[in-house]
Predict the structure.
Amino acid sequence: QVQLVEAGGGLVQDGGSLRLSCAASGRTLSSDVMGWFRQVPGKDPEFVAAIGWSGANTYYGDSVKGRFTISRDNAKNTVYLQMNSLKPEDTAVYYCARRSAHYIGSWSYIGGYDYWGQGTQVTVSS
């Protein structure tokens, strides 16, 4: 069993920065693709970013490219999301997730992820 716990959310002004973390326990995730998604109430979840097991490969949603950076520290079993130049439209609950080892499709497909954290709220004020 895998437990994922996000942290680092909060309230920030337009143009500000936040760094989210996702700490895993229960098993090592050093061989897994990890992703971040976000959701606004009443809307479908949106893919934000994903990272390969070594950290060398990353993939971003179009709305965050150039502003967000995903990284990982396998020694700490933790994944990070550095968010810069935040905009009010980035306001959402952010979730980290582990991509199933049995899924070989797109990293942005939400159905390919099998373990999820509880989410952390990010609010960007204008």
Q: What stands out?
A: The chain has a mean pLDDT of 96. The chain has no helices and eleven strands. The CA atoms of residues 54 and 94 lie 22 Å apart. The two ends are 40 Å apart (CA to CA).
